[in-house]
Amino acid sequence: MSENAPLILVVDDEDQLLTLTSYALTSAGFRIVTAQTGHDALEAVKEHAIDLIVLDVLLPDANGIDLCRQIRRHSGAPVVFLTVRSDQADVIAGLEAGGDDYLAKPFSVEELLLRINAILRRSTPADSLLSLGGLSLNLDSHEATASGHQLDLTPLEFRFLRYLLTNRERIISTSELVTEVWGVVDLGAHDPIVKTVVYRIRQKLGEPVPPTVEIRNVRGVGYQIRTAKP
Question: What is the dotted CATH code of the domain comprising 7-123?
C-alpha cells in the first residue's frame, strides 16, 4: 500500500461492520484509521491528517451530526454519513452540519467505494483560481473569498460553487449537480437537498457585505451563477 494513499477514518460502533468496511477499503488501496466512539473519532482527527471520514450517525456516546460539527473545528475532510435513517430531514441536517454525502444502512461496499472515490476525485484541488465578480475560489489552498472577506465553506459547498463557476455560461440542472458534485445518480429525491445547499451558500455570500454574485434559480431548469444585478 502506498504511503501517499488517502487516509480514511471509519467511525462505527458495530464490530462486524467496522471490520468489513475497513477490510474493503484497505483492499481498495486506502489507508485506514478506525474509531468506535465520538471521543476516539475526535482524537483521531486531531492526531492524523485525515482525507475522508466515514461516520455512523448513531454512536454510543455521540450523535454523528453533532460530532460532525465538532470535527469541522479541526478538519475540513469530507464526511460520508452512514445512517439507518434516510429521511430527508436527517440528510439535510447532516449536510448543514458540514457533511458531504450519506449512505443508508444496509449498504454494499461497492456503493461505499463509489461514493468515496467520487468525493475524493472532486475534492482534489487543481492549480488554478476561479473568480467571478468579487468571488474567488483558490483551488490550491481550498479557500474562498467574497469581496475580500473569507468565506467559511464546507467541502461540499466549495465543490458546489466550483462546479457552478466552472460552468458559469450554462444553467445546470439539479440532476447534473447531484451527479457531478455528489458523485451519485439523481433518482429524483435530491431537489430539497440541493435547495438547502444553495440557500446556505447564498447566506454566506451575503455576509458581511452585499453579494457581488448570485445563484440564479431557473424554475424547472436548474441553477446558474452570475454577477449580482444592482
Answer: 3.40.50.2300
